[in-house]
Amino acid sequence: MRVGVVTFPGSLDDGDAVRAVRTAGAEAVRLWHADADLHAVDAVVLPGGFSYGDYLRCGAIARFAPVMAPLVEAATGGLPVLGICNGFQVLCESHLLPGALIRNDHRKFVCRDQALRVESATTAWTSAYAEGQEIVVPLKNGEGGFVADDSTLDMLEGEGRVVVRYLGGNPNGSYRGIAGIANAAGNVVGLMPHPEHAIDALRGSVDGLGLFASPAGTLAGA
């Protein structure tokens, strides 16, 4: 399986995402933001960082990068796409996911190990987990508060599209403690915590590895 990892100017965690993909047993393919070609990958990861310096608004400029046009088309057609932190912001700006990410309610950058509950194990990126499973992965963001209107939040809850939820306190003011969501088809997932930093025991947790292992299992069972 070939998993593309996009690098934007300002990406910080693209190298970590590449390592996570390889640790999960897939081939990592570097994708450049200015190249409007996905190079026939089977899935794509949009990594964390500060794409284009987060000028205007987090993810707002990256949404117009040349690589995003084929990515949006492919994602609409079923390509598995994972957006982590800034990648989550890019997915919302691209309207592949609803809602938006705003500045943390306490106005401070947060960096800590974060407990999460897996609310949905039916997406392309969470099939390696059990519903209700509790995991711990690092969280690091300054604009990680997920917001949406009540009708959108009710829709996400009612359709089982809340993928992961914060445990042990809300770290950034995200509505209803939502840490990650999926699109209606379940192939596009965005989450604020960083699973690529929890893929081996040396880093203190292997709980994030399942997100990178899940797509291969999903495709193999298709």
Topology readout:
Blueprint: E1 2-7, H1 14-23, E2 27-32, E3 43-46, H2 68-76, E4 81-84, H3 86-93, E5 100-102, E6 110-118, E7 134-141, E8 145-147, H4 150-158, E9 162-166, E10 178-182, E11 188-191, H5 209-220
What does this structure look like?
This protein has 222 residues and is α/β, with parallel strands linked by helices. The protein contains five helices and eleven strands. It has helices at 14-23, 68-76, 86-93, 150-158, 209-220, and strands at 2-7, 27-32, 43-46, 81-84, 100-102, 110-118, 134-141, 145-147, 162-166, 178-182, 188-191. The strands form two sheets. The protein has a nine-stranded mixed sheet, with helices on both faces. Strands 5-8 form a two-stranded antiparallel ribbon. α1 (14-23) links the parallel β1 and β2 (27-32). The mean pLDDT is 95.
Short descriptors:
222 residues, alpha/beta, two-stranded antiparallel sheet, 5 helices, 11 strands
Low-confidence stretches: none
Overall average pLDDT: 95
Span between termini: 13 Å
Shape: globular
Count all strands and give the number.
11
User: Could you state the order of secondary-structure elements as H and E?
Assistant: EHEEHEHEEEEHEEEH
How many helical stretches?
Answer: 5
Class computed from helices, strands and strand pairing: alpha/beta
Radius of gyration: 15 Å
Strand content: 25-35%
Strand order of the largest sheet: 2-1-3-4-11-10-9-6-7
Helix content: 10-25%
Largest sheet, in brief, is: 9 strands, mixed
